[in-house]
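User: My collaborator sent over this chain with a note saying "see what the structure looks like." That's all I know about it. Can you take a look?
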Amino acid sequence: MPELPEVETVRRGLNDVTLHQTIEGGDVLLDRTIAHPFSAPDFLAGLQGTTIVQWHRRGKYLLAELEKAAVSGQRLAVSGQRLAVSGQRLAVSHQPSAVRSGETSIVAFPHRQIAASPSATYSPLPTPHSPLPPYSWLGVHLRMTGQLLWVNQTEPLEKHTRVRLFFGDGKELRFVDQRTFGQMWWVPPENAPEEIITGLQQLGPEPFSEEFSVAYFTQQLQRRRPIKNALLDQAIVAGIGNIYADEALFLSGIHPQTLCVNLTQSQIERLRSNVVQVLQASIEAKGTTFRTFRSVAGVNGNYGGSAWVYGRDGDVCRNCATTIERLKMAGRSAHFCPICQRLKKG
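Assistant: Without extra context I'll predict from the sequence alone. Here is the result:
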């Protein structure tokens, strides 16, 4: 399943190629991909004639801010006026798609400030007092095998193409999903995204946010359950999956079956730091491709080649040359080094 770095890589790619482009139409090839509205024609009708203002990420969700094409010029004009007045504020229409250096910057939006990556960039809708019309939203969750590809409309359809969104100049955004678990939502202007995409309500803080503090993490790890399972709990921290949980645990020297309540304070602090480090390293490598993940341009991620333990069972540990092992935990694989990550009893 694409995790935070893979979804962030897709978000950056989408911001490179789709901003200020108008959705002219589309085609739904698999109805159950559409989670809202409940009819594919209504989904396409809601999107048709909207322009993409910005792609955001929350956990593993992608959220595109949309506005009617007729409104787009008005909103950009307002942004330009603000730029002319302050001379320092950066309109989101001119925002780089990513902060390539890994630093987090703040950019001014017509209604609010938003954080550029690597933090999640979704924030609540403008206030009701805004003189400009509210946004509608396009939500996407890639689930296990989903891909969003920016291609020419003339390119032959991939076998597992589920949804096509058509833009000008003969381009399209194509949703390809082999396992068919991926979902898409159109959220009308009168609703906040979390009212329709209810999974957003269940998410914990972002790993790069101030809310994911040592104190918060410590408080969340006061239960008798394995630390690997806790890291996969999206209500504790959003965006971590199997790959980066294994990697962070290895760098922290913690066995995946270690009970949360048995972790020392220094281990918790080290683990929190390594979660952030591993995610940042994978974002810089444009994610991990083991099976199906591709960027918007169809390019594989590069992190997998430098993974410490994930997917390397049977290979030697890069640290001590012991054979990497794998075990099953709650239906998921856990990869670890039995020497570097000893399981302490008690």
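A starting point for your reply to your collaborator: The chain has two domains: 4-202, 214-336.
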